[in-house]
Amino acid sequence: MMDCMSHLSISELLNEYDRALDYTTSLTADLSASEISWRADENSSAIGWHLGHQPAVSHFMVRNLTAAEPPVDAELDALMDSATAATDRGTLPELARLRGYRDEVADRVRFHVRNIDAGNVGAPAQLRIIAHTMMTAIINHEYQHSKWIGEVRSEVHGKDLPVIVNSEHLIEVDGYWMVQA
Fold it and tell me: What pTM was computed for the model?
């Protein structure tokens, strides 16, 4: 049944997830703290907010769709939620904390999705379908915000964009990279 639904396995989606995370890292690795926290105005979000928003959404999806567990960092979850008004997104944590948050969430995503892939969960067939759809959304969300990070990187800070890792599973839709799962 799963083969009819998709041509990508959960394992392949996890590889694509790592590619998406690596791309975001390449967009920000050489930026200064001031470049990470720069905002056009109080109604705009800084690169740092996007760096925290991506994992906040990923972990929210994992812990609400597949595995009930507490937040990795409840304070960052609240700050990085889209429901938090842009005017309230100005005080960002240190970059090290954001990177640690991203890493911990990525570890939690991989852990739970690998458990689902191995069938080490209740309702393994049902959760496999949910995990497939969820991972596709998580990957595409990562690239969505990476595009916006890239725009600020190039248009505001005048830095070249890194080359996106080539994958036969990526397509471009309306200027956004997406995994075609």
Answer: 0.93
